[in-house]
Amino acid sequence: MKKHQSAALKTLKDTLSFQTSKRSLAVSAACISLGLGLSAHANVYHEDNSTPQTSDQAQMNTKPTLTTLTNYQENASYMFSSGLPDASHLSLLKEKGVTHVVDLIPGDRTSEILTTSELGLDYFNVPVDWEGPTLANFLNYAAFMQTVDIKKDKVLTHCKLNWRGAAFTYLYRINVLGENEQAAQKDLMAIWHPNPTWFAFMNEVIAHYNEVNGKKVAMSFEAAAPENH
Prior knowledge:
Blueprint: H1 2-49, H2 55-61, E1 73-76, E2 79-82, H3 87-95, E3 100-103, H4 110-119, E4 122-125, H5 135-145, E5 155-158, H6 163-175, H7 181-191, H8 196-213
Parallel strand pairs: 2-5, 3-4, 3-5
Antiparallel strand pairs: 1-2
Helix pairs in contact: 3-4, 6-7
């Protein structure tokens, strides 16, 4: 009888040991499978979305440069023009020697006045209506430009996209500085082709200076065709 009981107990222990071993193997397999799944998911994330940048890397990639300044041009040794600059652009321009900022945008310019003041830049506003630029606008601009000491100062002329700015710097170069019209025209056309409204305005400015200076300066291009809306 005792022999039968011992044999039964041994069989029971072996069975329990086998079942425990099976459960351990199952848990191990499940853990391995989960680990592989997480690893595969991580690889998919990095391959599809690229490695996340650190804050330092992000700052390096967004470091301001003048290449991000809309339609930036260096028109002469002391004359720059561009679209609307932000504080970082103005700071970089100051490093390049810019001392004066001429803003051709009308309206509330408080923000730029404060920014240029903080940077120690001289600020001057000529509010030019996009739909109605005037000879008086340009004469105001030219009067300011002629106060600049070109031996030590540099000027940025800007608007929103440098369309006004490109027109004003072109007109100043050919009418006041006496530069070759076709050379100045290349810079203008690299930015935009004046529409009929601005072409008429520019002709008026040129006619005024021709009368004053006794010259026959003329634009070497026609107005852009009006847009159909």
